[in-house]
Specification:
The complex is a heterotrimer. Chain A has two domains: 187 residues, Periplasmic binding protein-like II (D-Maltodextrin-Binding Protein, domain 2), CATH 3.40.190.10; 190 residues, Periplasmic binding protein-like II (D-Maltodextrin-Binding Protein, domain 2), CATH 3.40.190.10. Helices cover 46% and strands 14% of the residues of chain A. Chain A is built from 18 helices and 13 strands. A five-stranded mixed sheet of chain A has the order 2-1-3-13-6, sandwiched between helices. Chains B and C meet through helix 1, helix 3, helix 4, helix 5 and helix 6 of B and helix 1, helix 3, helix 4, helix 5 and helix 6 of C.
Chain lengths: 428, 268, 292
Amino acid sequence: MRGQGTSAALALLLWAGTTACAREHPQVAKTPPSPHRTRIVFKHQPLWGDEAPFRALLRQFERTHPHLEVVTEHIPNAADVAHQYFLTALEGGASDFDVLVVDVVWVSEFARAGWIADISGAFPPETLREAYFVGPVEAVVVEGRTFAVPWFVDVGLLYFRTDLVPRAPRTYAELERFATQAMARQPGLAGYVWQGRQYEGLTCNVYEAFWGRGGETMEGGRIALKTPPMSQALAYLRGLLTSGVSPPSVTSAAEEEVRRTFQQGNAVFMRNWPYAWSELQAPGSPVRGRVGWAPLPTESGEAGAGTLGGWQLALNAHTPPERREDALRLIAHLASADANLLMALHYARNPPRRSVYAAPALHDGAPFIASLLPAIERARPRPVTPYYNLVADILQSEFSAAINGIRTPEAAMERAQRLVDHLMEEAP
Amino acid sequence: MRSVPTWLLTAALLTFFLGPFVWQVLTSLRPEAELTAPGLPRALTLEAYRSVLGGRPFLHVVLNSLVVATATTISCLAVGASAAFALAKLRFPGRSLLLGAALAVSMFPPIATVSPLYLALRAVGLRDTLGGLVVPYATFALPLTLWLLTSYFRQLPDELYRAARVDGCTPFQAFRRVLLPLVLPGLATTGILVFIFSWNEFLYALTFISSPGKRTIPVAISLFAGEHAEPFAEIAAASILATLPLVVLTVLFQRRIVSGLTAGAVKG
Amino acid sequence: MTGQDASRAERLQAAFLVAPAVLVLAAVALFPILAAVWLSLHRSILVFGEERFIGVENYAFLLRDTRFLTALGNTAYFTLVAVTVELLLAMPLALLMNRAFPGRGLLRASVLIPWAIPTVVAAKLWAWMYNPDFGLLNQLWPGRDVNWLGTPGLALHAAILVDVWKTTPFVALLLLAGLQGIPQDLYKAARVDGAGPWRVFWRITLPLLSPALLIALLFRTLDAFRVFDAIYVLTEGGPANTTETLSIYAYKTLMRSGNFGYGSTLSVVTFLCVVLLALGYLRLLGRSGVTR
């Protein structure tokens, strides 16, 4: 009995061992490490899909820079987890990675904390302004200095069912009316699904409803929360829940929950990011061919602004001087127009550069991304401040309290404004 | 208890503890388009398993976890057993203090220890090594080990130890030759708990390891999620593959416990 | 050899035996804990780029912080309910696993599965089953559209259920080990005396099991009070902070906001709460003779 157990355990170990050796380090570039080559480590999230095109992009860089070896290391996609990793490592002075990805809302925090280097020399703000959209440039240029280069962008969109509504709604009233009509025809259908869980997605949804009512994110250098458009935005979102246009499940939903509900054919409208498109239109999707997208509605009927998301490339401030030039060259390579195009065609990442949207290859290979141009041009950033992560924590809890009816929108924003103002006063 | 209620109770408990896992297995076998369809799946596919095992170094990751968890368990039991024996059977000052202090260590919220530990591990060159995980794992699993093993040693009659001493054993020999074999079931129980603790740890593994080749299972599973999209079938499949070695090991260890060394030993 | 020499030799041997454990605990665990305590006396917000000693100011702020009080309440409630339910479930489970009946091996192995699944994955699995639109639970309960994780008041209980599912096996395993330490002769003697099953349970099993029971209770309480992963995956503390526990609050303060000073204060206070709880249990343990 005992002998059997031991040999079984050994067999298990051996099995794991042999298979492990067969596929060693597949993420490291194929070329063997050589003492003459400098290692540049790029820390980023897994891209999904076939890794080959991205590997080819890196090998192309190694061919033109034979003295360099590029190593990629993955961090989880979950923004909180990535933030925690970078915070611990960079505050600890880690120099074991050179190029890192930074969320659009983190750049000024990382810059202020001294974790990412000023790269204005290689990427002057003026040249960035010429090539890139306004939103991402606003995020990466902190007090006139460049701290990161946009890699890909994201924007909030309204998805709708072309078989259930006559056209995309332009105003909030239209959205509610179309939804109610479709729901009356088909019981069991949800009207409008969006992200209402207490997390960053909720903040994006609230800001979109706020901008759609003429709200301005900053007023006189102060984050404006206790304002009529903000109260109206929160009352509107709360109203969607109480009137039944949005199902109760919205208050615990993030992107994937609503995407699955919508994809199953159980909702008329959905607010989501562009990634949902290819899922909805995939073979076997119940709503394939019956989905459209539009800019978010507004009070007035003009096209609304979606929240700007996306990731940027930055240089670790602790990278030693002898590796800096090469790391900057890698950033330039990864952020080039060609690389943007490759990221769009193979990984559905939306280019942050205006020129790429004119490329015929994009229109042929990724027509949906090409069609996003107007929405991306209108995308607006959440409050741009080094203290965004401190602010976001306050916003998420107060927004959640308001849409759950625990506090009135006014009371919630009264609290939020007080807490945020206090925070900003304390800031040096 | 009659046998019908026993069976009912067994069935109810099995349903509660296994039900969600079975549902997870079913989910991992569903085609993507059917993931959210109500009821039982109409079609089954191994696509998710193929995707987990192909393309990604998942088995390598399982091996890393096995190495880390085994090393942690062995070092924890080695350090813990001798100390627990002393705590249970020898007289020396500061025994309760040591047990109390060990307990205090296990009471600190792990999140607050991440940053200082990161700095410490880097200072001694253990960052990004599997050893850099074993050291903190073994440390933070040590309190539970000490407490459990101390209680198991206490269950053994003092006469055993005294008889061994009279026979000319040093305290250490008495521990190794007489008492240790008798607490093997206790060691097995403790070992399982420590093993699973290190198998499942996420926070330290995420922060202290950066090379892809040294990743452990919880971190590898967290990498499956996309920027927004979440391939639930793959996550389910990976979690099942990650649980299987544990189930095998538990079954092996369970035999040790079942063999019921305790019952005979205590009488001895 | 005189008695005194013998006891001195024994003390020496004892010191030699406990030394590795003491060294490991002191070298690895003490440093980060002391570092956190030290930081809790500072105003240290990474992005503000300042770090200065402010004494107990963070602790004074904490007493006025309503969010802290809410989190403390949530944590206490979570711990109390989760640990109670776990013990009540683990007891019959352990008794069952200790009996000889066909299928016992299957029960023992399968009951451990929940505990073997990484918490993060277990929580994802439950979040999937809790989904109001396509989750298993609402399918099993047709006609009811329960929003498990999105309803204030309900969400915390949903998190408790996950914890119960995940950690009852841990308690059951400890109790099982305790049960196996009870000499069979006692049961035989009781049966000869004609005692019924309930009487045997109350008079023999429970008293002799109490050391194992208390250790299980102790470690589960200390763990539950620091609950993090499960709640983080299920709700991130929402809706409206109704499921925010001390560890979640500390995590957000430390790792999202980069407020190391106040985040450390929250951690130290969580620690102090757990110490108080542990002291309570230790008194009970001392009474039952586990620590002498």
